[in-house]
Amino acid sequence: DVPKAPELRGDSDGPRRGSLCDRHCAAINNVQGDVGDLGCYLHRPRVPPAMSPPSCCQQHSDEVCESCVVKTTLTAENVVEANKLSNNYKFGFKKWKSHVTARPWEDRSEIVKELYSDLNVIRGSGGSTVTCGNVLYLLLFGWWLSLLYVLVAAMMFITIVGAPYGRLCWDLAGYFLWPFGKVIQKVEVPKSRQVLDACEASAGESSALLGGPVPRRWRPRCWADTGYWQRASTVMWLCLGYPALVLAHGLVCVTAWLLIILIPVAKLSARTATRVLLLPPEQVLVRRLRMTEVPLEGEVILCCYRAVNPYYYKYAVDGINVFAVNLLPLVLVTLVLGYVDSHNRLTSSPIKFTLALLSIMPLSYYIGMAIASISAQSNFAVGAVVNATFGSITELTFYITALIKGSREGNRCYAEIVKSALTGTLVGCVLFVPGLCMVIGGIRHQEQRFNSRSAGVSSALLFLSVGGVFAPTLFSKVYGKLVCGECHNVTQNPLGHYLCHNCHFDMMEKNGTLYYSHVQPLVYTVSLLLPAAYLIGLFFTLKTHSHIYDIHISDCHMPGHHHSAVVHWSRWRALVILLLSTLCMSACADLATEHISPILTNSTISQYFIGVTVLAMVPELPEIVNGIQFALQNNLSLSIEIGNCIAVQVCMLQIPILVLFTIFYPTNFTLVFSDLHVYASMFSVVLMNYIFMDGKCDYFQGTVLVMVYFILLAVYFFAPSPSGC
Description:
This protein is elongated. Mean pLDDT is 77; it is low at 1-70, 193-226 and 555-561. The protein is mostly helical. The protein has helices at residues 20-28, 62-69, 79-88, 110-116, 132-158, 163-177, 193-203, 223-226, 228-259, 263-274, 322-340, 349-376, 380-390, 393-409, 413-444, 452-469, 471-479, 509-544, 571-594, 597-602, 607-617, 621-632, 636-664, 675-691, 699-718, and strands spanning 37-38, 72-75, 182-186, 284-288, 299-304, 316-317, 320-321, 448-449, 481-489, 498-506, 551-554, 696-697. It comes from Cochlearius cochlearius. This is VNX1 protein.
């Protein structure tokens, strides 16, 4: 345990109480900082009060105190979480908001505790149960579920032997019509003494002739002893009543779980199907709770007060967010439909393309979770290798499969779509991601500050990467020959104006001398320099100048409390999930590129717009959610770094990898972009650097970035399709 710092008491000779330096040193001695708390975390032995310094300013100058105040102390529950938090502030590492270890139960808020609690807790008077969510349950499930119980009860009464279960179904019909404020208990019902006495009397009968007990096969049947009627009733129930009710509750459970906010209803149905309906009917008691009554006798099985809880978006299963859990079956459906129905007999190509694109979102989440788990449980070298290898695997998988398909079909449109997606990712991560985080974070916090120096490193790398990526394009504009496909004389005068269409700069004149002799070597040179600059940036931010992030991670949760790390995913499990997710990602990307052709040929929307929006931003949705969560916690530095890191990786890693891929597998991809891509990217980077200049922002500046992004989207929407599409 970290000892508390001794209380500093000033005297007449020391500085005045409450001075700025004293407040700074109070921040220095603070050992319970949380995310966003200011102060240096000092591990030092306990100092006796007699030896404590009279004033902090005798030890620290004002400059030292100012330098300590800007350092941010992050508190983690354990060493693994501390490593994850530290990795979030490392350049080139994936930023991950969710916990990779199980949080201590006592540290969770009451709202979160309620999400994971079983529906068997009886609370005091919580007001009226007539709420909008409960009425929604009545309209969606309650009425027909109650009607089904009535029908099953009637059927069980008709069988006579199933009358006890019929009585149970009748009671449950009233319960499921409106289960709120009611309770289902398990009670122990003793056997009737009369039946027991009769059994004992029959067992003790003797024969007058033999003078001994009657043989067992001659005894009269004792129903209570053999349980004949109970077994017959149970068999009738399991054959006729139970299957129909289990199917109904299964349907309710799946539907409510997919709606997320109705997860309490899913828990209610699951508990009923697996527990209540399997109990003997005489042990189930359904009763209504009164305002002052708390039933103490018997075990409480179900007690529900609300059908809707809007906070279930925080719910996680084994560390996996409920949204990612619900979208996982979509991946299986996509793969089955895509590879089984190859001739589009069941669904059309646009539907398969949409399903494949949506399946990329949960797979991106699983890949991010696996990378964060492995990095947090490994050393720096392993974490750096994993992040560099799989950090951009989502985007690269789609780009490479699209280029392969375009090369096989001889269609240049796929290469243009890849360029549009690259530009869309760059523009979206520079404008939309930080702008949206500023707007949402600005709603809760009037003004947000961030580390302008660390953002400046990313901005410098962005300037370098954008200049390097578009250098071949600018070179071709200067030295290429403008060729137009069709020209018309507008004024009917040979010396008048001409209207030309489909104009582009030709680099293949004279057997491609300009391209193969000048442009292509420039592309290869840039593709070597950009990764080298990325490595230099890593070495600068992670080794020589790591202090610019001013982050200190404390692995002490609270003084006097230590928590061992209970990881959600071990390293081997995370590695297996990472490989499987990557494999499924490749399959979904293959299906998306396979079924995008009808959309490109039949759609009236520009192919530029499809690549810049759908193909670029859908794989980045998990990163956008992480950025928003960081911004809501007033940690805008990580929100900005998420967008900058992705944009830098697009230019310095993804594009050079694509160029390297074209060397071994020739495709139509060339590092020559359209004018629209060049202008949009450069303008976005300049605007982003202007906004981030002062190290603070508000929702208005975020609105500016978002509006500029939508203006660029409008330009792409009305732009004509690229040549060759």
